[in-house]
Amino acid sequence: MTKAPLRSTPTQADTRHLVLAHTLSIMTAISESDLLDRTLAAACAVTDAPVAVALDPDGALQAAHGAESLIACVTEADLPAVRHYTGGVTRALAPHGLPSAVTATFGNSLIVLASPRPDHLAAETGSLLALVIAHAQAGRDRLHELDQLSRRADSDPLTGLRHYRPFEERLAASSPGRTAVIALDVDGFKKINDQYGHQAGDHALVSLVGALTQALRGDDQLYRIGGDEFAVVVDVSGVGEALTIARRLLVAARLSGRTISVGAALRLPHESGRETLLRADKALYEAKRAGRDTARVAA
After folding, report:
1. Most CB within 10 Å of its CB: which of 2, 159, 162, 280?
2. Prediction pTM value
3. What's phi and psi for 292, nearest 5 deg?
4. How far is 233 from 223, CA to CA, in rounded Å?
């Protein structure tokens, strides 16, 4: 006679439902910090641990979940000693009112589950925490993949520069009287393609972009907005500083073996970022009419 399959106990079923629910929560995290918060919440829910903390490699607290009084016990502890404590995390936390603890690594972080009750964390706590961490790692991999896809969608595949959407967003965030748009394009670029082919043209652009990028300040961003057309959106103290940056770009281009024409415009009050770009473009064409390899500032 065939025996009926054993049915799961309510506790096992509840645990499986909790793991599933928190797996969905972890996998829909929208950032690294959100992922860490959801991972700690899942660890507490699945293991019944009242408090969970994440420590960075130096032992500093990254995130915490659980009763505020218990978190206070952890944050007042010598966290670097907990991170590197050779005698065990449990012994390190016991003097702070947390005599029961289980740990697991998540990337470079140390996840610590703790309880004020001795032997509160069951024998399977470590396995459950490992399961949560495995789902969290899958969630982190998903975030990294989405970030790479977003970067590829927003970046020029040849030069690696950002374009279109991020450029429009930066224009929209510009400030009147503070933000300047510097438009530039390569002098005689069509001749390179016509005489030496598109591969030579691509090589020239890549070399030029490397030189221009080195000439910019750390927070300044160069965008490719057309075939041989580029733009920089920078915060400056005035028109004079924008012209200084434009001239620095001219020098960088010459050193790379090419010349460029540059037009700069400081955003005016009641003017949109797009309108500032149009004035910078007009200044750029004034530079071309003046003989190229020079810069002009919009009136």
Report:
1. 280
2. 0.57
3. 70, 175
4. 8
